[in-house]
Amino acid sequence: MSHKVLRAKQTKKLIGRTIFYMFIVFIIMVILLPIYFLLSISFMSDQEAYDWPIPLGLSFQGEFKIEPVLGTSEYLVSVYSRSQEAYMSLIQGSKIDQMSEFLRNKTNCNVSEEKLNEAIAEVNALYETNSNRINTLTEEISNLEKKILSLNQNIIKAKRNLSIVEGRESMEAVEEKLRADLKQYEAEKEIITVEIEEKKAELTPLNSTHFKVFKNLFANYVTFFKVTRDSIPALMRSIQVALLTVFIALTIGGMSGYAFARYVFKGKNILKLSTLFVRMFPGIAIAMPMVIILAEMGFYDKPIGLSLVYSVGQIALTIWITASIFMGIPVELEEAAQVFGRTRVGAFIHITLPLALPGLAASAMYAFIGSWAETAQAIVLTQFNPTFPVVVYQTMVGAKGMVNLIAAGGVTMALPAVLFTILIRKYILQMWGGVKV
Amino acid sequence: MTLNQSVTLEPHKSGFPWKKVIPYILIAPTVIYYIIFWIRPVLTSIIQSFTPEIGTGFTVENYSRIFNDPVFWQAVVNTGIFVIISVTLEFVVAFGLALIINKKFKGSSLLLAIALIPMALPPVAVGAMWSSGFATYGWLNSLLMSMGLIGEGEKILFLAGSDFQSLMLIIIIDAWQVIPFMMTILLAGLQGIPKESIEAGYVFGGTRFKVLRKITMPMLKPSIQTALILRIISAIQVWLIIVLIFGFRRIPVLLEEVVFFQEQVQNEYKLALAYSVIVALVVSVVAVFYLKVSGAFKGDEEQ
Q1: Taking CA atoms, what residue in B is nearest to A20?
Q2: Which ipTM was obtained for this model?
Q3: E strand or H helix at A79, and its extent?
Q4: For FRET with A44, which of A109, A336, A348, B248 sits at 20 to 30 Å CA-CA?
Q5: pTM (2 decimals)?
Q6: Backbone dihedral region for residue A53 (phi beyond 0: left; psi -120 to 50: alpha; all else: beta)
Q7: Burial environment of residue B5 by CB neighbours within 10 A (0 to 12, 13 to 18, 19 or more)
Q8: Over the stretch B2-22, which tens digit does the pLDDT of each residue have?
Q9: CA A311, CA A243: separation in Å to the nearest integer?
Q10: Structural domains of chain B in order of their starting residue, each with its CATH number
């Protein structure tokens, strides 16, 4: 009996555990799926990104088909679409260089002119050996297509007549005949359609050739930097602004953080809350008058000007975080060092600072991320020298960018921020541990 | 103990009250910085918002124009709905997640690491992610279709819903990014609660829910306050994600209007300033009200 109860208990526990882990997996999916799609779209070509439905997996190469357009000297190039499970026509033409460039832009595959020439030579050779069969087949197909056309007209006519006659008394005989006709037409159409398909299936290998080309996965990233107005200088500027902000926030904020952690002084509470109050006045509202103030200082539209403004928010955050870090280091250590003859400053430099260093580095990265991602104030505070987020923002809101290019910009933006966050993940909890409003 | 105290009180035996002066020296740079780069622009904003666009003199025209603008009232309503729903939703979910991760199961540290990623993403990246997701031919519809949840021709028109639906969409996107942030603060607080006090609750016959309400929640109060106040402040200032997804003036909110008049319209600089003063006023009133009600001020005085 007790054995049975134990078994039942174990099963219940197992089910509970399974449900729990299913829930955890669900949460992870909710977090990771959008990120996965952003990443995967950033690697997609225009053709893939605007396909429907958007392919769920990444592809590393494109499959192309090339065929001569009968009666002209032009060639038709198609690419295999995984969503449609069929070849989609891309370009028809005779100028190899133009075609190559178009295909490269559209599919992100490096379709070189040599490759195209090679494929065309192959297709021409194929055509010559099979020309008789191809000609008869195309003729047959076009005849069959004409038949379908006339059948379609008959069907439409019959349907129209049917709609007139339907439901009227004394017209039942006519109605019946029309229905019979319609049925016959549709049956005929079906047979011919199948026939055309068979003939086309025979024709395709005779007059077309396939080739595969590897995809350039980072093509969107390259294009993004090429088409958007000076994005590489903007990237450099963003890094510069972030580093300056880290420096200002950490020196000024760190000092206050230490004071918060170690001393009791008048006005502490007011200052503590003021770190909260600086967040209440919208950043853009600060940025607008700052345009004039920075212009007076000669810092407008320069990285230093931006970081001076960013630092207002970052100092507040750094005070909170560093205070929490210094509180985690026992004051007794410093006092002991002073007993052994070190000065207050010496005790701080030789005892507390080394212990606080990892936490301070984490706080620096936090400030870096904050400054790196800041968009709103940068929109107001820059004119000719935008930061990187502003460039991405303009590509998005200006609606001049394609979805895959925007994704590439977004991923470039996100990469350092995510990297730093994962690096300092241990400290993030510690950083917020001592925070108290 | 007495030895230590005497050491810290008189480090230089010079009679100069270092202990009292040092903290002020340490905070002086912050205070000076705030005076130059915060108080000064804030005062400039407030003063200039009372002057006409061209010329000088005192006028309340900027404000009266805003109050007579129907879009302003729409923005107030939208912002209000956004703050109430998003803060509630985010807090509840974040609290639940924090309780789960705090249980320290196998893989909890992995979950924490993954949960931190949305928090790290810059707003423009989040905008790019979701604007491509909620597009009619976007990845979300593609995913739903390949999962068989919707058929061909049943694509969900996420971005074409009513104003309220669009606002809900923004709340979902915002929640996706902000929940990890709130969770981090709450989790940090949870890890600071000694295990003994929770165990004591169970020993004395408390149910899981009762322990949560009577022991965990009160001990977590400082973290809850921090999370909520930071969140409320930034929720009232939402705008970028809305503009990235819907563009300007589709769903007006307070701060979006500021940027609209600053960036998109010529010669409305003073109006934008007046708008931002109103936003700041709203944020301050709500924040101070929250701090008063939640007793944060009282807690400070006791310290």
Answers
A1: B100
A2: 0.84
A3: strand A75-81
A4: B248
A5: 0.83
A6: beta
A7: exposed
A8: 334 434 444 445 567 777 888
A9: 11
A10: 71-302 (1.10.3720.10)
